[in-house]
Here is the input.
Amino acid sequence: TAKSSGKARIVVYEAEMDRRATHDAKLGADLRRALDRDEFFLVYQPVVRLPDGCPAGAEALVRWRHPERGVVPPVEFIPLAEQTGLIVPLGLWVLNEACRQAAQWLRDLRTTGPWKVSVNVSARQLSEPGFAVQVAEALAGWLLPADRLMIEVTETAIFDNETATATLRQISALGVALALDDFGTGHSSLSLLRTAPVDVLKVDKSFVDDLGGDNAESTIVTATLYIANGLRLSAVAEGVETPTQARRLYELGYQLAQGYHFAKPLPAEEMAALLAGAAPLPPPRRAAPAPDP
Ligand code: C2E
Ligand code: MG
Ligand code: MG
Ligand code: MG
Here is the structure.
């Protein structure tokens, strides 16, 4: 009967909830030990200059090498780390590891363009009273010039959050750049761009996806560039997967982009090779020239 099948569904649902809770509890316990056991590592995704394909930066993205599960992506543990507060020590580790790596690249690479390394920071970290000091200490500790670092935060992390905005002002005063990540998907508010010291808008992949077809348009992608240009900010298009998207972005006037079309997140050594100019990324960009008649 409908009633008993409803009951059955509730039982299945509760079993699923239990399974998920156990899974999360286990993962949470593993997560707490993971820092001590040195199980996290960073990969780096290039940010590419569309006109010439040169890397303009590298976004540090955290990975977890779990002893049984293998490499776990951040979607599976960052939310958990945020809930449990572990994001604070984990985020501090990410910040220091990215600064250490950037400083090493600066020392080791013979030619260095004006690239930056960017680090994702959660709302929870920005609300920690000492966060700006920790950024200053990471830069000083690894001897990394402030203009080599960028901090990425989401609109939601700073929306209506005076503490977070004040922290960002202190970080900005150090000379560190600030990017608004996943732009257009959070509490988009243009007044945010006046109160927070934003340098870069990263338009979210979901809007870049709209540029799929040859003549496809994306109002948000276009509007973001318009806002960025008007406020003298940079704009980066995220999640570029196809040559068509890359070409459309270039035609619209985008200078910077990131995505699997150019490169997936890479091990540090491969990122270093790109920064050294050893391996060019796929070109942007223009429509192929017409063949000679
Ligand atoms: P995000 O900061 O927006 O980073 C971009 C994500 O999109 C990365 O996923 C990247 O691998 C992926 N991506 C880049 N290009 C493409 C593409 O062309 N196609 C597709 N399908 N995906 C693409 P990832 O590394 O799994 O990170 C996911 C999110 O986890 C990040 O989104 C960021 O919000 C968060 N995250 C990663 N590392 C950290 C960290 O160290 N701290 C904090 N707080 N969050 C982090
Ligand atoms: Mg990011
Ligand atoms: Mg993003
Ligand atoms: Mg995104």
The chain has a mean pLDDT of 90.
